[in-house]
Specification:
mainly alpha; globular; disordered C terminus
Length: 303
Amino acid sequence: MGLALDPGIAELVWYGTEKLRLRAHLTYGTSSCPSRSTPYVGGFSGSQVCRDDGCIGVMHEVYAGTVSRLSQSSAAHEIASRLAYARRIVATQVADLERSRRVARGMPAKPTRSDGIAGRIIAALTADSPSQERAVWLTALFRMIRGYACRDQRTSSEWPLDMWAAEKTRIDGHLRLVGSTGVRAEVRGDIANVLTTSERIAGRRWVIDTILHPLLMVRVPLAEELERCIPAVESPLVDHILASQVQARFAELTAAGLDAQSAWRRSVRDITGQEPVDEVWTVLDDLDGHSNARSGTRRQATS
C-alpha cells in the first residue's frame, strides 16, 4: 500500500472483499481469515497467512482500483458522501473480479442473464406452460438453477429442493409439505423439465457448460473437509454429470476421426483427469449406441 493510505477507503475495501478473500484462503486450506482488523490501519500490517494466501493481495487490487476511480471522477468533489461513492466503486470492483474469475474457470460471466440463448429458453418455457403461473415459476426456476450452479462458496452439488419448493409455493400459492418425498419429486420434475427444454433449444453442450459442469465443479470444501478434500456429492449425480460430459467429448473426438479406443481414453482424461479403468468395448454401447461395434473395437485395440 502507498504511504498516503486512506483509512476509510481501506476499511470499505477490507470488508467489501470479505467473500473474495475467504475464497483465497480456502484455496490454500485455511478455513477463515486470521486478520481480525483492517491491515494498514492503526499500525496493523495483516497476518502472514493473509499475505501467503493472497487475501491481502485481493485487498491491494481492489483498493488500487477504487482510489484510481475516485481520483479520475470529475464529479467526486460534488458527491455528498465520498465514502458512499467509494462503497459503490468497491462493489463494482468486486463484481468485476468475480465475473473475470468465473470466466477464467470456464463458466458464464453472467450466469442469470435473460437475453440471447437464455432468452430463447425462457420463451420456450413460457410457450410450453399451460398457465401464466406455471410460466412464471419455470422462468424463476431456470434463473435459480443457473445462479445456484455458478454460486461461489457452495458446499454441495445437490439442488436445494426444499428451498425451491418454498419458492414455488410463494409463486403459485399452493400449499406444500416442504421436505416431503412427494414435494421433492415434484421439484425434481420441474428441474428436469427446465433442463430438457434448455437442451432442446440450446443443445446438450450448452447445458453441460452452463449448468451441469459448474454444478459439479464449483464447490468449496466444508471446514472439516479441508484436509481430506473429499467432495460431499452423491455418486448418482456425479456419475450422471461426468458420464454426460465423457459421452459428449467421445462423440466430438470420434466425429473428428479418432478411433474409438483412443477417443475413449482421451475423453476420460479430458473430463476427469484420470486414465479410464475399463476398456472401451465395455461401455461402447452407452457411448455411441452401436451395439455391433464391440468386437470390431476389440480387434482394433488389440491388433
